[in-house]
Design goal:
The protein is an alpha/beta fold. It starts with 25 loop residues before the first strand and ends with a helix. Strands 2-10-9-8-7-3-4 form a 7-stranded mixed sheet, with helices on both faces. The radius of gyration is 21 Å and the shape is globular. Helix 1 runs antiparallel to helix 10, helix 2 runs parallel beside helix 10 and helix 3 packs parallel to helix 4. It folds into 2 domains: 126 residues, Aspartate Aminotransferase, domain 1; 240 residues, Type I PLP-dependent aspartate aminotransferase-like (Major domain) (Aspartate Aminotransferase, domain 2), CATH 3.40.640.
Length: 395
C-alpha cells in the first residue's frame, strides 16, 4: 500500500482531547482518526510554515475552486461558488444558523439517535429539541415518515437538522428518502440544515447523495455544512464551509456567521482544505478501503466472540454502532464498567438521544493492531460484566 495506516502514532502528551486519558486506557470514542493526515496536506502546510509570516488570511479563489471541483468530481454536484461561505467549523456554523433562522423557544427537529452536539447547539441557543426517532429495522435505520410528518406539522417546528450520512448509525440516505424529507419540510415551511461532514468517509462502491442535489425544493430550503476535517483528519485546523442556493437564506446565514465572527480562517485553514481536495483523493480512497476492512473485521469478531452485543454495520463514517440491549439489565452501566475494568473508552448511546439508550459508539479509525486490542478488551469486559451480573442474581 502506498499510504501507511498501520503505524501506531503516540498521541499522548500532544493536547489531544481524545487521548487525554489514563495510561492504561484505550480511547475509541470521539470522532477523530489516529492516522496522520495525507502527506500531500502535510507538504502543503510545511511550505506555508516555512514562509514564516502568519498574519490575517483571506479566502482566495483557489479555495472555492478546490471545494467546487471536489463536489463536481466526487459527488456529481455543482456548487456555485457564490453560494459558499468559509466557516471555522461545522458546529459553530450550525449554532449560528440556528440563531439566525429560528427564534427562541421554537423547535428544531432531529432524527435520533444522532450526533450528540446537535442537542447542545439547539439547547444552548434557547430553542427546543424535537426528537423524531428513526426506526431500527434489522441492522439498518429507516425514517418513520408518518412520525416525521406529524413532528414537522407542529407550528413551533421551524428547522430540521439532517445528518447525512447518519452519525452514529452510518446510514447513507437515498435520493428518494431525501426528496421526501424535502417535500415534507416544504409543506410545513421548515428549513433544513444538512450536516454532511462525514460525506467522504464511505465504503468503496458506496456513494453519499448531497441533500441539496436531490431536487429544486431541497436546494432552495436548505443550508449545507461541509468540511474536509473528518475525512482528512484535520479537525484541529478549523476549516469548513457552508453553502445555500437561496439568496435570502444565504444572506441571513452570511450575516449570522459574520456577526458571530466564525467566518474568517486561520493561516493554515485554507491551505489544508485546498490541498485535501486538490491532491488528497488517492489517499482518501486508500483510507476508505482500510476503514472498511477494519469495519468488516470488527463486525465479524463481535458476531463470533462477543455474546450479547450486536454490531450494526453502516457503509458510511468510521464509526460502529453497537447494540448492547441483550446484555444483562439491558446493558445499563456497561460503558462505565467497560472503561473501569478494561480501559476501553467508548461513547455512551444515551448522549445521542432517547433512541440511543442501550447502544455504544466505537471509533474504528485506528491502526489494525489498536483495533485488535480494543476488540479484545470489549470481549473481556463483556465476559466480566455478564459474570458479575450473574453472580448478583445468584446472591
Amino acid at each position: 500500500m502506498k499510504y501507511d495506516f498501520d503505524t501506531v502514532i503516540d498521541r499522548r502528551g500532544t493536547n489531544s482531547e481524545k487521548w487525554d486519558v489514563a495510561q492504561n486506557e484505550l480511547p475509541m470514542w470521539v470522532a477523530d482518526m489516529d492516522f496522520k493526515a495525507a502527506p500531500e496536506i502535510i507538504l502543503a502546510l510545511e511550505k506555508r510554515l516555512k514562509h514564516g509570516v502568519f498574519g490575517y488570511s483571506g479566502i482566495p479563489e483557489e479555495w472555492y475552486a478546490a471545494y467546487t471541483g471536489w463536489w463536481r468530481r466526487r459527488h456529481q454536484f455543482e456548487i456555485n461558488p457564490e453560494w459558499m461561505v468559509f466557516v471555522t467549523g461545522v458546529v459553530p456554523a450550525i449554532s449560528s444558523i440556528i440563531r439566525k433562522l429560528s427564534t427562541p423557544a421554537e423547535k428544531v427537529l432531529i432524527q435520533t439517535p444522532v450526533y450528540n452536539i446537535f442537542f447542545n447547539s439547539i439547547l444552548n441557543n434557547g430553542r427546543q429539541v424535537l426528537e423524531s426517532p428513526l426506526t431500527l429495522k434489522g441492522d439498518r435505520y429507516e425514517i418513520d415518515f408518518e412520525r416525521l410528518e406529524k413532528d414537522l406539522s407542529d407550528p413551533q417546528t421551524s428547522l430540521m437538522l439532517v445528518c447525512n450520512p447518519q452519525n452514529p448509525g452510518g446510514r447513507i440516505w437515498t435520493r428518494d428518502e431525501l426528496i421526501t424529507v424535502a417535500e415534507l419540510c416544504k409543506k410545513y415551511d421548515v428549513r433544513v440544515i444538512a450536516d454532511e461532514i462525514h460525506c467522504d468517509v464511505v465504503a468503496p462502491g458506496s456513494r453519499y447523495v448531497p441533500f441539496a442535489s436531490v431536487s429544486e425544493t431541497a436546494r432552495d430550503i436548505s443550508v449545507t455544512c461541509i468540511s474536509p476535517s473528518k475525512a482528512f483528519n484535520i479537525a484541529g485546523l478549523h476549516s469548513a464551509a457552508v453553502f445555500a442556493a437561496d439568496k435570502k437564506i444565504r444572506h441571513m446565514v452570511r450575516r449570522g456567521l459574520n456577526t458571530d465572527e466564525v467566518a474568517e480562517p486561520n493561516v493554515f485553514a485554507v491551505t489544508a482544505a485546498t490541498a485535501a481536495f486538490n491532491e488528497g483523493e488517492e489517499w482518501l480512497d486508500a483510507l476508505n478501503q482500510y476503514i472498511e476492512e477494519n469495519k468488516q473485521m470488527a463486525c465479524k469478531y463481535i458476531t463470533a466472540n462477543v455474546d450479547g452485543i450486536r454490531a450494526l454495520y453502516g457503509p458510511a463514517t468510521y464509526l460502529l454502532w453497537l447494540d448492547v440491549r441483550d446484555l444483562p439489565e439491558g446493558g445499563r452501566g456497561f460503558a462505565a464498567f467497560l472503561r473501569e475494568k478494561t480501559g476501553l473508552f467508548l461513547s455512551v448511546g444515551e448522549i445521542y438521544g432517547q433512541a440511543g439508550q442501550g447502544f455504544l459508539r466505537m471509533n474504528l479509525a485506528c491502526p489494525r493492531t489498536v483495533l485488535e486490542d480494543g476488540l479484545r478488551r470489549l470481549k473481556a469486559g463483556t465476559e466480566m460484566y455478564r459474570a458479575e451480573k450473574s453472580q448478583k442474581v445468584k446472591q
